[in-house]
Amino acid sequence: MAKLVGATLYLYLFLFLFLLLLHIHCHQCKPAAAASFVVHGGGGATARAAAVRAVFVFGSSLVDNGNNNHLNGSGAVRADYAPYGVDFPLGATGRFSNGRNVIDALGELLRLPAAGLLPPFADPATRGRAALHGGEVLSLKQQITNFEAVTLPDLRAHLQGATTATTTTGHKMKGQDFFDQCYLPKSLFIIGTGGNDYLLNYFNAGSGPTRAPLSEFTSSLLTKLSNHLQRLYDLGARKFVLFSIQPLGCTPVVRTFLNATSDACIEPMNHAALLFNSGLRSIVKNHNGGVRSHMPGASFVYVNSYKIISDIIQHPAKYGIRKTSRACCEVSRGGVLCQKEGAICSDRTKYAFFDGLHPTDVVNARLARKAYGSNSPDNVYPINVKKLAML
Known about the structure:
- 31% of the residues lie in helices and 12% in strands.
- The chain has 391 residues and is α/β, with parallel strands linked by helices.
- The strands form three sheets. A six-stranded mixed β-sheet has the order 1-3-6-7-8-11. A three-stranded antiparallel β-sheet has the order 2-4-5, with helices on one face. It has a two-stranded parallel ribbon with strand order 9-10.
- Strand 4 (164-167) and strand 5 form a beta hairpin.
């Protein structure tokens, strides 16, 4: 009997979540105080009001902003060294890029304080952190458990005496009521996961003949993801942004591992990503007004990372890119990470990938712009992140 390998949405890195709280106006609840505040390591008040109350991000190394710096265990995978961050104002912060990751770029567009930079949950300086558990991966299930057990109680305590709101009916609410009825429903919950289940599990050489059929494996992943989304909904989440898997077969690490001799992508890997992405889009379609939805009042956005990045790879000159099949940095033996203090390309804006797996700042910025403002359902469905934030 075939065994499902890794069908638990394991993530490539020990990544929890990030959050940034903003005190702003919403349609249902009007804050009585005018002052802005930020918790969990964010900056001060901004001159312009942001479109969302908070941003919570669950995902892999593609969205990690420094949680990997605080990993325990000898097998920890980190990006807290040069040349990572060569084009980032703060240097090597743990982001797997030469500059911003997609969440950083999206945070700027959402007009979050501190230039859109969200603090890492695992940083000891981040208020309300959980004990670090060590190891190379952490399941999405555990990330949500940390969110429920640590972040939610911490935020409720913070709001207990700090916030008084007035609803449109004149009803006063404080603390926990305000948090559960106004804060969480007006926050964005961003999830980017799934790719590493294929890279590190399904297509891993160690999975061998016990590997389940691709359709069965994918179906299991999507079922588990749906359950995790339901759990977040039950905790109060109402606005979801789901990033699709990028074109795995076009990444330098996959090309190198399979000894690709041309610029052509490895189609079996891309097929797996497309299969998962199709199911992910169906989840969004079914929950946005679907008669069978178990999440009434929830709104979902599907960001087609696969198409957006594929467009860059297939038409590089259109976007000022020259190299799409090679990493900008000198990669280490595993083919994924940059060699510590290793050589890098002179112009990072001409490369699609910084290391063997992670896009450059310029690609992340384009992905964020499309997610935020595109009106094409091929890029983002059924609405863009800007419109979702304004709901």
